[in-house]
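TICKET: design request
STATUS: open
ATTACHED STRUCTURE:
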């Protein structure tokens, strides 16, 4: 073979090698950025989960604070009726006794309502901390996951000969102009069950697609899969721990208000 032909072949082969190597490094950089972006978005998603739990617990805390305000105002009114604004001595005895019993019952139920509301706030806060620290932690990747996203330039050398000297645009043109017999076959259906598709196209665990369910292909992994356990279901499960305190706080405050209104009625009779 003449020397000019060898030089031309070597030059073209070197240009193809450099072109394919640059494409490989560019694709590797894009894949690393995509994997890191996926981890970042996953952490932002879990931050939203944690904020949802804080907002839901904050509703209970705010509601219990309103119960405290109402109960304190009614307790102040009851104490005023028992002290400076008590009925004079010339009032019939049965009116005094009925009003005293009503005021004592109102004070007892209102104090119980304040204790139950305080207990609900304490329990809700403690389980909020438990959710934040044990169940909905930020999905921080480990060193192994970060290293798996990296690609070294030496991996390009492990490709086959056609991968090292791949002609630009040749593969796309071949797929466009090649006969239909050489094109990729479509996924076949099961003759017994035409609606059944191959497992590769079936949805993955938790309702995600088959390609995203494995996790390793995207680099994020299943360490922070939001479909494995819903944070709202966890909150609903733990909410039962303080729902009883919330409900009985409302009940006792309603009963205490009833006794306070009854004492005001006897107060009006006495005057």
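STATUS: resolved
RESOLUTION: sequence designed for all positions
ATTACHED SEQUENCE:
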């Amino acid at each position: 073979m003449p020397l000019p032909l060898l030089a031309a072949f070597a030059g073209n082969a070197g240009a193809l090698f450099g072109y394919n190597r640059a494409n490989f490094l560019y694709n590797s950089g894009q894949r690393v950025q995509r994997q890191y972006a996926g981890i970042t978005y996953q952490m932002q998603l879990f931050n939203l989960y944690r904020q949802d739990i804080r907002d839901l617990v904050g509703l209970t805390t705010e509601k219990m604070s309103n119960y405290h305000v109402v109960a304190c105002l009614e307790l102040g009114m009851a104490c005023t009726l028992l002290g400076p604004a008590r009925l004079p001595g010339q009032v019939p005895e049965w009116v005094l006794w009925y009003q005293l019993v009503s005021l004592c019952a109102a004070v007892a139920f209102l104090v119980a309502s304040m204790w139950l509301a305080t207990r609900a706030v304490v329990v809700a806060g403690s389980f909020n901390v438990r959710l934040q620290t044990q169940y909905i932690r930020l999905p921080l990747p480990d060193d192994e996951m970060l290293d798996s996203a990296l690609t070294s330039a030496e991996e390009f050398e492990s490709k086959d000969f056609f991968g090292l000297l791949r002609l630009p645009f040749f593969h796309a043109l071949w797929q466009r102009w090649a006969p239909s017999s050489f094109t990729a076959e479509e996924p076949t259906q099961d003759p017994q069950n035409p609606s059944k598709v191959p497992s590769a196209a079936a949805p993955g665990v938790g309702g995600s697609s088959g390609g995203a369910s494995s996790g390793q292909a995207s680099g994020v992994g299943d360490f922070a899969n939001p479909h494995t356990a819903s944070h709202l279901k966890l909150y609903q499960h733990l909410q039962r721990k303080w729902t009883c305190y919330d409900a009985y706080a409302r009940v006792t405050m309603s009963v205490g208000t009833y006794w306070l209104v009854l004492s005001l009625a006897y107060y009006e009779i006495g005057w």
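CLOSING REMARK: The chain is about 70% helix and 0% strand. Residues 181-228 have pLDDT under 50 and may be disordered.
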